[in-house]
Each structure stands twice: as C-alpha cells, then as structure tokens.
Amino acid sequence: MVFQSPEKMKEYASITWPRMEERIDTIQKENQDKIIILDWALIPKTKYFKGSIFNILVEAPYEVRLSRAMARDFISEEKFMEREQASCDYDNLDFDFVLKNIDLEITKGMVNKIYEKSIISRKF
To answer: Which of 4, 8, 63, 66 has the highest Cβ tally under 10 A?
Structure first.
C-alpha cells in the first residue's frame, strides 16, 4: 500500500524512521572504535549521509534488480514496478564512489579497491 501512495509512504516513514535512527545512533555510540557500514536505500535523506566518511552508490540495471527482487521477495513484476516508482532518484555526483552491481564477485573486487584506497584497510 505504501508504494502506491505518497501520503501512506510519508506516514509509514514518520513511524519507522525515528526508530531506525534511534537504533543506528545506539549502534554508533556503542561501536565508536569500529567501522560501520549502513546499507539503506534512503540514507541520502538522513543525517547519516553527510556524516559519513564516504558514500557509495551501488547501481544495477533494471533487469538485474527485477530478477533479484522477484527471487528474494517473491513479488511480481507489477509489484516491483510499484516499488521502483516510489524509490528515490540519486545524483551520482553526491557519492564518492558509484559501483555497477551486475556480478557479485566483480562488485566485491570493486569494494576491496575502495577499501585499499581509503582509511579502511580491511578485506572481507
């Protein structure tokens, strides 16, 4: 329902966002000496985006996103399209890195290259 109505989406966000931010704030406070990665499609709309050391946008072609969502969430293409229409548009220039995520192994390699160039020197 929320993907079909901007009003419902706003109402849903007003309920969920404060709790999510509260939880993230707690995690950050309890883990100040650790690297924290936030994987949240709406992060550019939050205080965490500007407060991050760097931001990574992971993009995938429509067909790849569709296939993954249908397999993961057991939804139809119609339901996926509703989600897509409700999703945010991003300006690639707002991000420090933009990754094209088509193949998991290639994406992991790109992430490792980012780690090697950053203050973060860990591999996963």
So the answer is: 66
Cα–Cα distance between 30 and 81 in angstroms, integer? 38
Alpha-carbon distance of 74 to 19, in angstroms, equals: 27
Furthest-apart CA atoms within the chain: distance in Å: 44
Tell me how far apart the alpha carbons of residues 34 and 16 are, in angstroms, rounded to a whole number: 25
Q: Give whole-number Cα distances, 55 to 14, 71, 91, 96, 118, in Å.
A: 24, 27, 12, 5, 12
Task: Tell me which residue of 76, 44, 68 sits closest to 57, measured CA to CA.
Answer: 44
Q: Whose CA is closest to 59, among 91, 17, 82?
A: 91
Distance of CA 29 to CAs 13, 26, 94, Å?
A: 23, 5, 26
- Average pLDDT, consecutive stretches of 10 residues, N- to C-terminus, the chain (124 residues): 77 89 94 86 88 91 94 95 85 93 90 77 50
At 76, list the tokens. 């139809």
